[in-house]
Design brief:
The protein is α/β, with parallel strands linked by helices. The chain has helices at 25-35, 37-50, 59-79, 82-96, 103-125, 129-173, 194-211, 228-243, 255-263, 277-287; strands at residues 177-180, 183-189, 215-222, 247-251, 272-274. Helix 4 (82-96) crosses helix 6. The N and C termini lie far apart (113 Å). It holds the Pfam family STAS. Residues 173-284 form the STAS domain.
């Protein structure tokens, strides 16, 4: 019998966590990975570079992150705490997503670490084939679980960041601007789909309430086209604004959009339309009781 073999060693727990806490082998495994931490982390970093992963990060950043990942990886092997792993994976994602790191890179580096550690365990226990099998039977499911958890957490965080960026872009592309007291302008540029039209309504109604607006000029000069659902949404936006005490003037309708509105049968009686933005602002000031004076550039002192 090899000096490493323990006759009381049993198979890994059947709960799928890969724990070996009943036979005392897990502390040996974790101690080995911690004892050789520097060498194994350097080997892992070398393989990451050979695979051309994490190239968006500096060498200092990669050293810091691989050290953190290694330590957390070993800690999860020891404790089996999925919650701690998920929390760490989210923190990791927040740090590296702004660096331009892609999902396949994250999965790749975790799988490389799994393989580096597996090779190290093989070297340690290769003289005792039976014990090696038990070690790998415990290690592989736990390592795969870690890789899966990190990948899922990264994808979830990336999707959250994308949604946040999309919301920011929408807010920038549909700004509600106060022109003067009780007068707002909403210039819309780009494709106006159903989701953006819904957000437009929310922003507009919020702006009306915040600025106590009485008139809103919605300029759609920069909108190439609208479909029936979006056109009907605009009508509902006008109705909602009216309920909040604000009149809506729509300016900048292109001939194509005007024909679309007529063709699909939109109730145009609910829309106050003016040809261009300048005319819309003049009409808005008239509704607010301001006198509008034109400067034709004629005459002088």
């Amino acid at each position: 019998m090899s000096r490493n073999e323990n006759p009381t060693v049993t198979a890994a727990a059947s709960d799928g966590t890969g724990h070996l806490d009943q036979d005392g082998l897990l502390p040996q495994l974790v101690a080995h990975l911690r004892e050789h931490r520097t060498r194994l982390r350097q080997e892992w970093a070398r393989r990451i570079q050979e695979a051309h992963l994490l190239q968006a990060m500096t060498s200092q950043e990669m050293t810091a992150e691989t050290t953190l990942v290694y330590d957390n990886y070993v800690e999860v092997l020891e404790t089996g705490s999925v919650e701690a792993l998920q929390h760490y994976a989210r923190d990791l994602s927040e740090r590296i997503i702004p660096r331009g790191v892609e999902t396949n890179e994250v999965v790749g580096i975790v799988l490389l670490l799994r393989d580096v550690l597996a090779r190290s365990l093989f070297e340690k226990y290769q003289r005792d084939f039976s014990l090696l099998n038990r070690v790998l039977d415990a290690y592989e499911p736990a390592a795969n679980r870690i890789a899966n958890t990190v990948a899922v957490s990264f994808v979830e965080e990336r999707e959250r960041v994308i949604r946040q960026q999309q919301d920011s872009i929408r807010e920038l592309s549909t700004p509600v601007l106060p022109v003067r007291e009780r007068l707002l302008i909403l210039p819309i540029i780009g494709v106006l789909d159903r989701e953006r039209a819904r957000q437009l309504t929310v922003q507009l109604l919020s702006g009306i309430r915040t600025h106590r607006a009485k008139v809103v000029v919605v300029d759609i000069t920069g909108v190439p086209d609208v479909d029936e659902s979006v056109a009907n949404h605009l009508v509902r936006t006008v109705d909602a604004s009216r309920l909040m005490g604000a009149s809506v003037i729509i300016t900048g309708l292109s001939p194509e959009i005007a024909q679309t509105l007529v063709t699909i049968g939109v109730d145009l009686s609910k829309m106050n339309t003016i040809g261009d933005l300048q005319g819309g602002l003049e009409e808005a000031e008239r509704l607010l009781g301001y006198s509008v004076a034109r400067d034709d550039g004629v005459g002088g002192p």
